[in-house]
Amino acid sequence: MKDKQTNKGLDLNDKTPLEIITLCGKVKFSTEKTLEVLSGLPDIKNMVSLEENINTPGTEEYKAYRSGISQGDLEIESAMYDQAAAGDKDGYESLTKAQRTRAINDKLKDSFGLGDEE
Predict the structure, then answer these.
(1) pLDDT at residue 17 greater than cutoff 70
(2) Which residues make Cβ contacts (< 8 Å) with residue 68, sequence separation at least 6?
(3) Contact present, 50 and 44 (Cβ < 8 Å)
(4) pLDDT tens for residues 64-73?
(5) What is the pLDDT, as a whole number, of residue 8?
(6) Residue of 41, 43, 48, 52 lying closest to 10 (CA atoms)
């Protein structure tokens, strides 16, 4: 029987490292936790290089991780929007709170380089 790394039925052996990095970004795993997930895969050989790449702007790994974060945010806020549009008061409150938080984080990032980087 083949030994597989799984997470709630998710077969990570069927995904490329970049797909896993994107998925980890979507669920907002820290880069450290993302590296822990990747370290259990058989074809990952150079963790030091991978750690450098996931933290270096412009690399494929960095782009995949940051893209995953944005995709996850979009999916969540889109679902909240759908709830709010259907008249769900909790959905509306959750959406406006998320929008306020994003606006604050964007302003902190623009002004001081601070925000929701991880």
Answers:
(1) yes
(2) 21, 22, 23, 24, 25, 26
(3) yes
(4) 999 999 999 9
(5) 60
(6) 41
Encode 33-64: b = buried (16+ Cβ within 10 Å), e = exposed: ebbebbeeeeeeeeeeebbebbeeeeeebbbb
> What's the confidence (pLDDT) of residue 3?
45
Number of Cα atoms under 13 Å in the Cβ half of residue 82:
6
Nearest to 55 by CA among 77, 73, 31, 89: 31
What Cα–Cα distance (Å) separates residue 96 from each residue in 53, 84, 99, 115?
Answer: 35, 10, 5, 18
Taken in order 4, 43, 69, 32, is the CA torsion positive or negative? positive
Cβ(118)–Cβ(112) under 8 Å? no
- Which residues, including other chains, have CB under 8 Å from residue 89's CB and lie 6 or more apart? none
81-101 pLDDT per residue, tens: 999 999 999 999 999 999 999
Tokens, residue 56: 């270096």
Cα gap 6→105, rounded to integer Å: 33
Please give the pLDDT value at position 26: 97
